[in-house]
Design brief:
By secondary structure, the protein is α+β, with helices and mostly antiparallel strands. A 4-stranded antiparallel sheet has the order 2-1-4-3. About 65% of the residues lie in helices and about 20% in strands. The longest helix has about 55 residues.
């Protein structure tokens, strides 16, 4: 094997490792950023719903609360909203998908470990005369998962293009150095 081919091979291997490392790091960081944004948005949403629940349950406006939940589920992309009393009985709830109400919620599960397509959050709430209770929100994760798959696909394509560019550059550098020596 000629020296120029050896140099091209060495440059290609190191270039491929570097390009692959950059792509892997980019995909990992983007995924973590997306998870963080969804978690922050769910915290904001559940705190807003908590304020709504506390304000309307003080006046015993459970029917109006149900109507407000219906609008939120339709407009905010929330899969389900459920208000439970201290005994775990459902007082008010709305959902855009019957699967969301029929399933067992898993609040506290990190979004990275969600397997059933719903990210659940829960917060304690004051129900006025009924005492303490909880609000559970479930969010669909299908759109986020699809976007993450799309980003991974784009990352692989960019990695392949980077690899081919590095191989071409390495071949040209190796050939030039090999001819010079």
């Amino acid at each position: 094997m000629r020296l120029s081919h050896r140099l091209a091979l060495v440059f290609s291997i190191f270039g491929a490792a570097i390009a692959g490392g950059f792509q892997y790091t980019h995909i990992r960081d983007t995924r973590a950023e997306m998870y963080s944004r969804v978690e922050n948005m769910s915290d904001i949403t559940i705190n807003a719903i908590k304020a709504l629940v506390e304000a309307q349950t003080r006046g015993g406006k459970y029917i109006e609360l149900g109507r407000n939940f219906e609008g939120l589920v339709r407009q905010a992309g929330v899969a389900s909203i459920v208000v439970k009393d201290s005994r775990g009985r459902r007082l008010v709830g709305r959902s855009d998908d019957s699967r969301a109400l029929a399933r067992q919620a898993h609040p506290g599960t990190p979004i990275r470990k969600v397997v059933d397509g719903f990210y659940d959050v829960e917060i304690p709430v004051d129900l006025g005369a009924r005492g303490a209770g909880t609000v559970q929100l479930s969010f669909h994760t299908a759109a986020m998962d699809a976007r993450l798959r799309q980003m991974a696909s784009q990352g692989v394509r960019a990695g392949v293009i980077s690899f081919l560019a590095v191989v071409l550059a390495a071949w040209m550098i190796g050939t030039w150095f090999g001819m010079s020596i």
